[in-house]
Amino acid sequence: MDEFTGSVLDVSGRTALLADEQGNALPIPASTSHEGLTPGAFVAVDTERLDGGAATIWVRPAFVSDDDPHALHPGGVRLLTDAERHASREPAASTR
Question: The CATH number of the domain where 86 resides is what?
Answer without folding.
Answer: 2.40.50
